[in-house]
Amino acid sequence: MKRNLLLTAAIAICATGIVLTAQDRNGYSKGDMAERDEINRSLRLAPGSSVEISGINGPVDVETVDSDAAEIRIVRTARTREDLAFRLISIEQSSGRLVIRGEKDGDDQYRSKNVQVSHQVSVRLPRQMSLKVAGVNGRTTIGNVDGPVHVSGINGAVRVGSATSTTDISGINGSVTMTLDRIAETGLRLDGINGAVDLRFRNLDNADLHVTGHNGTVHSRIPNTQVLEKRENKLYTARIGAGGPQIVVTGVNGGILLSKDGYED
Known about the structure:
The protein has 265 residues and is mainly β. It has 3 helices and 21 strands.
């Protein structure tokens, strides 16, 4: 089971264009990354805009605000100034859409030159948006979002504040922590997580939980949880309150915990 889950996460990451860099293969430390460039941009985003962030070789931080103002800060570091000609990041804005994308170079050229470029992406975005983050070789932190959130192909821990519509998280090589205001009628889905899953709810009275293919314990600390079926590492179903939106979790290599936000052991 564990081997299959690791393979699932690796496939998801590679499918988005993220590959291990020269630092991973040859052991370069951050101290070797003496060269850098920086992009700072401010712009306006209409409420409900679509935002996509992908192909980032480093951590991603998404802060949200109750405003239409957006701020983008991107730092790229490399061992030499010549290396900064590779792994560029583009910013594209059109009506109701913002895309921040790490550009793929020809892999043969990139590898033959032994290039390593790291990214650090920090953005401040309007809370009312649709957000997609994919193909990140680093931890990913997302604030509170009034809209759908889709996260996939992340090589690092994922932390999400809240989402008020469909939420899908898949192909994560690390732990997942989410604090949600509520679950939309379309539900919550997590798949292919190589790490612990910690789901915290501020308002959850009625929901249905369905867990399959997990390698670890499943535990709910939410009041009025009735376990319907339980088979070790195969199936766990439960009803919270009168039942409602579906919480579907599949292929998790780690423990799964559901609790009220603010719960303390």
